[in-house]
Design goal:
- The strands form 4 sheets. This protein has an 8-stranded mixed β-sheet with strand order 7-12-5-4-14-17-16-19, covered by helices on one side.
- The chain starts with 6 loop residues before the first strand and ends with a helix.
- The chain is of the alpha+beta class.
- It has 2 domains: 295 residues; 25 residues.
- Helices cover 19% and strands 41% of the residues.
- It comes from Saccharothrix espanaensis (strain ATCC 51144 / DSM 44229 / JCM 9112 / NBRC 15066 / NRRL 15764).
- It holds the Pfam family DUF2330.
- Keywords: Membrane, Signal, Transmembrane, Transmembrane helix.
- InterPro entries: DUF2330.
- This is DUF2330 domain-containing protein.
Length: 338
């Protein structure tokens, strides 16, 4: 496993041919669909337990597509599960930034191994909830894309080429089909969880360089210690640390507590990445400190004052009285002179 960095996950949102193919992307991978899929928010939890890593992923999209595929890299052959989206609600609650208010006054109004080969070999295929999951092995991008095409995943040439670096490093391809209950992907993909073995905790990002829009990402990491993460887009803004703190089981957060057999450290990062700047995956490393942290967000409260302000009325009124007195005095003098 040391030499193998990752695998690729393909998620299809229909059991029919995706044609014509329209490519898009989310932070962790890429979409192929019969209509545009615009990622509104991608939220992921990475759990690190020794050499075992799990990624729980929720992707919200804006689309009416009924046929789609989703490509995501993960290290080694993965065990696939359907996840509970309520977990992310609880993660958001415990990591939410503090707020301070400032007034501004304005005037106005399955786990296993596989040997790489030149062709594409199906090493596993199972049904999990609403998903039909097939895992492939192979290092030849043409063989893998041919298998995907034969099995109703028509990939644009640009996206097929983006798979080559992963396959050259011995990545797997996990193809997952989905039939959305709503008839489209307007509500996003059902949350999914993948577990695999790796010596290097990672969150895959390189396929996202094929995207057309800025890629938003909220990344949680649950580990024994606070973590640092690498910037997948070095020429752009680095993801910002939002929260770091040790968690213990809490009855108010049952889904999150189920992951905490012992107290663990949660670290949260938020960022947006321009596709043309993405050159690497997110590398996860232990931080030099376990110091807790919570971001503080300033909320500006606009307060509108009356016009003219009360403190201006007195001097203005006094000036008017003086002006009137002077005018009356001058008028009296002019009449006497006459």
């Amino acid at each position: 496993m040391t030499a193998r960095i990752a695998a690729v996950v393909a998620v299809a949102a229909a059991l029919v041919v995706v044609n014509p193919a329209v490519s898009g992307a989310c932070a962790c991978g890429a979409f192929v669909a019969n209509d545009k899929l615009r990622t509104q928010q991608e939220t992921a939890l990475v759990e690190v337990n020794g050499r075992t890593e799990s990624i729980t992923l929720a992707v919200q999209t804006r689309s009416e597509a009924k046929q789609a595929a989703f490509l995501m890299p993960v290290p080694a052959r993965a065990r696939f599960e359907v996840a509970d989206g309520g977990l992310f609600t609880e993660l958001d609650q415990v990591s939410r930034p503090d707020t301070v208010e400032r007034e501004v006054v304005v005037q106005g109004d399955g786990v296993g191994g596989s040997a790489p080969g030149r062709g594409a070999t199906v090493v596993d295929r199972v049904d999990v909830g609403p998903y039909d999951v097939a895992q492939l092995s192979g290092t030849d991008v043409s063989a893998v894309t041919e298998w995907l095409g034969t099995n109703d995943f028509t990939l644009p040439e640009k996206l097929g080429g983006a798979l080559q670096p992963y396959l050259a490093e011995g990545w797997l391809v996990v193809a997952v089909r989905l039939s959305p209950a709503s008839g489209s992907l307007s509500d996003g993909l059902p949350p999914m969880r993948l577990t695999f073995e790796t010596d290097t905790p990672i969150y895959p990002m390189r396929l996202s360089k094929t995207a057309e829009q800025v890629q938003p990402l909220r990344l949680y990491v649950l580990a024994d210690h606070r973590v640092d993460i690498g910037n997948p887009a070095p020429k752009g803004d680095a993801p910002e640390l939002t929260f770091a703190g040790r968690l213990e089981p809490d009855a108010q957060h049952p889904k999150l507590s189920a992951l905490l057999t012992t107290p663990r450290f949660l670290t949260r990062y938020d960022g947006e990445f321009r596709p043309e700047h993405i050159t690497d995956d997110v590398r996860i490393t232990r931080a030099s400190t376990d110091e807790p942290y919570r971001a503080v967000v300033e909320v500006v409260k606009i307060v509108r004052s009356p016009w003219p302000p009360a403190n201006v009325l007195i001097p203005v009124g006094g000036a008017l009285v003086v002006a009137a007195g002077v005018a009356f005095f001058l008028w009296r003098r002019s009449r006497k002179a006459a």
